[in-house]
Amino acid sequence: MTAARSKSAGSATPPSIDAILNWPEMASLADRYGRVPLREAARDAARAIRQGRIGAEAEAVAQYCREKLGSGFAQSQRRVLNLTGTVLHTNLGRALLADEAAEAALTAMRYPANLEYDLDEGRRGERDLHIEPWLTRLTGAEAATAVNNNAGAVFLLLTALARGREVIVSRGELVEIGGSFRIPDIMREAGCTLVEVGTTNRTHLADYERAIGPETALIMKVHTSNYAVQGFTAAVSARELVALARGRGVPVVEDLGSGTIVDLRCFGLPHEPTAAESVAAGVDAVTFSGDKLLGGPQAGFIAGRRDLIRRIAKHPLKRALRLDKIRLAAIEATLKLYADPELLRTKLPTIALLARAPDAIAAAARRIHEALDAQFQQQGLRLDVEQCRSQIGSGALPLDLMPSWALTLRFERQRPQEGASLEALAQRLRALPVPVIGRLAEGRLWLDLRCLAADEEALLAQQLAALQP
Ligand SMILES: *Cc1c(COP(=O)(O)O)cnc(C)c1O
Q1: CATH class of the domain comprising 81-89+353-465
Q2: Model confidence at 3: pLDDT above 50
Q3: Where does ligand 1 bind, in terms of residues with CB under 6 Å?
Q4: In Å, how far are 148, 155, 157, 194 from 163, measured between CA atoms?
């Protein structure tokens, strides 16, 4: 490197590109990135030599190409440490898969599978059949199908069952989920006429009753997953709606959104409506996400009455929204864990993270604090262990926060040196080899350790120790 630097004072004539490509120093780069990108990098290196930015010897050129290709080919979507305190963070990819699900997905990726092939009969099969028995067993529904995500499930359900007709929804449930999923928009796109009933805070059974007419295709309930109306409120339960609609021959459907298939209270968490509860209340079809509280890959499920599910599954849009073999394999493995809810606590990361004991989180925070406190003080940074509150995320139970513990970072002095802002600090954490994503609040950077796995503790500590002031 020293030789390269001293040479770089003046420009030099570079070797030919072919000569550069034949240097033994370049062989491993060709293996790794291929000869086409390496030739491009060598051309850039030749230009850098002519301009005197690097030396002309093999080691300097190889180093230049290694860095150029390393940054050019860095994986754009990569692993991060989610220390935001939001367990199901949509921007960070929501649920983490169980080992069982990841292994099943890997096998599906690497080998041919009986995706649509009946091994008993030796003829064409149906892809949904791998997961339908588990979905019906866990929801109590007669039949079930699955598509790309829950937005797709709602869109497909409306298109297949209500296109060109009316769908009744309470004004208190006309939600926007984020990422431009709004119930009124999805209705219009599905070709349905939205019939709004009631008011934002109060809707009564009589409101629905008055709205039912010859053009009514469905009554739809939407779980207001990401907000809550409090105070003087009234909503009609699924059970009451079913009692009203049955007599008129109108199906009732419910979009549960985050909907889980197990009662979260058995893990000390607040109650979130389950698909089984909706089915038990008589709802004719429910929709819910795969990668929210259920803890699987991105998917949307529809469970309900056999005749309705058949109509939905036969619709051409189902083909456009269908799941691939990789996710179907992961979903099947995830659903099997629900056969015994006690398994979930250890095997399903989403439940394990949500049910994690605050004491265990605090202990991790103290261990890292102890290892790094002195060093951070020398850098003019103050590291503290503080109590905080995590949230479930992805719209689930927005008002329920879980007690947790965080490491917080702030500047020791009142007025930090120039450029030493908290934003700049957060940016440096995001630039680490495994980016660390925290949250800025109250003049500190908060690193909520709820989602830090035991085997990630050393990684976080090492990375923080390597942070330069
Ligand atoms: C999250 C959510 C959706 C969308 O689900 P995706 O799986 O993200 O497509 C739809 N409806 C409700 C009520 C939701 O909470």
Answers
A1: alpha beta
A2: no
A3: 149-151, 154, 175, 177, 181, 222-223, 225, 255, 257-258, 289, 300, 394-395
A4: 20, 10, 9, 11
